[in-house]
Amino acid sequence: MIPNPALGVVFHWLGGLASGSFYVPYRAVKRWSWETYWLVGGVFSWIIAPWIIALLLTKDLPLVLAATPGKNLFWCFFFGLLWGVGGLTFGLTMRYLGLSLGMAIVLGLCATFGTLMPPIFNGEFVSRILNTPSGRVILFGIAVCLAGIAIVGLAGIYKERAMSPEAQKEAIEEFDFKKGFLVATLSGVMSACFAYGLAAGDPIRDLTVRHGTPALWQGLPVLVVILLGGFTTNFVWTVLLNVRNKTGHEYLSPETTLAPPNPGAPQPIEETALAGPATSVLTTTPAMLVRETVRVPLLRNYLLCALAGVTWYMQFFFYTMGETQMGKFKFSSWTIHMASIIIFSSLWGIGLKEWRGAGRPAVRLLGLGLAVLVGSTIVIGYGNYLATLSRSH
């Protein structure tokens, strides 16, 4: 297959749109704790969607996985486990920093580690990147991307300074920049492990192509293994929360009880899509307070979680397609993917009024940062195009 970097960039933009949008359906889930709706959505993200789509679009999936060397399966699964840790702490970042600023910091670190570490580890950074014109253009595009991420992060800092404490609490109830930055660092480094898992899956790609899978879909079997690792991490954590918080009944119960607010006690933190994965807060209510029994929209909640889960999976469905179009510098796909996620998640942040009251300097910086990020994807795509020209001569 002849690489087409321009088409690859489009695929990565579509993946970024999916990733930047998947939280939105969770906002409409009613009367479920975070651990419940996160696990239900995760079953669709990490198990159902990857297997169904891979079975439909690739050849001999069970045989391909059975023929893959055990060490490759292990590393794909292991990096998926580590990426799962990044996903859980990513939700805490959303809780403390909000969608726009949180994603900027996490994905900036994730872009750096996820893009540069594979070629460095493989000993190709100098020979294939620094010593080739196309490689240097791609490296410049990565630097432009990181600059754009820094500008978006700076816009978030300006927003923090401009907004009143009341406005901050309205937009992001638990805003805490220092705590959020520490959690974001851990999340960014761990989240980059997904890129390492993709690199470890090259033998799986070779096997599935030899079995007759079209080159465009060769990455789908790799996702099955990596996401199984991610599911394992998230399953363990959410079930522990179900047990600790006594919320396991929510999966099947058509009713739940709500206690009236207790003015003398701290108010529980509402679990929302923007809060994302986080440890649930245990609260107690005096026994004399009357509890109200309310209906739980079970079918609606399951459908919304399914929509969120499948939307999340589509980011990597399009990612693997885009990666096949980037030629020998496919590692650069990770940077384009991160930039695209920030672009679309920031637009959602604007739509959800996170930037209301942030002030003109913050909004202008945000616009500049998004423009720089778009430019970075174009520069990286051009570098990959130069690489295809050098191969054709």
If you had to describe this structure to a student in words, what would you say it looks like?
With 393 residues, the protein is mainly α. It has one domain (5-254, 295-392). 71% of the residues lie in helices and 2% in strands. The chain has helices spanning 5-21, 34-57, 61-67, 70-97, 99-121, 125-130, 133-162, 165-171, 177-191, 193-200, 202-210, 220-245, 298-324, 333-351, 360-392; strands at residues 255-258, 292-295. The chain has a two-stranded antiparallel ribbon with strand order 1-2. Helix 4 runs antiparallel to helix 9 (177-191) and helix 14 runs antiparallel to helix 15. The radius of gyration is 22 Å and the shape is globular.
In short:
This protein is mainly α.
Strand order of the largest sheet: 1-2
Low-pLDDT stretches: 263-288
The dominant shape is: globular
- H/I helix tally: 15
Count of the separate structural domains: 1
Helix % is over 70%
End-to-end C-alpha gap: 17 Å
Chain oligomer state: single chain
**Whole-angstrom Rg:** 22 Å
Strand proportion: under 5%
**SSE run:** HHHHHHHHHHHHEEHHH
Query: How many E-type strands?
Result: 2
Major pleated sheet:
2 strands, antiparallel
Taking all residues together, what is the mean pLDDT?
81
Q: Please state the structural category.
A: mainly alpha
What are its keywords?
single chain; 393 residues; mainly alpha; two-stranded antiparallel sheet; 15 helices; 2% strand; globular
Describe the secondary structure blueprint for this structure.
Blueprint: H1 5-21, H2 34-57, H3 61-67, H4 70-97, H5 99-121, H6 125-130, H7 133-162, H8 165-171, H9 177-191, H10 193-200, H11 202-210, H12 220-245, E1 255-258, E2 292-295, H13 298-324, H14 333-351, H15 360-392
Antiparallel strand pairs: 1-2
Helix pairs in contact: 1-13, 1-14, 1-15, 2-12, 2-13, 4-5, 4-9, 4-10, 4-12, 5-7, 5-9, 5-10, 5-14, 7-14, 7-15, 14-15
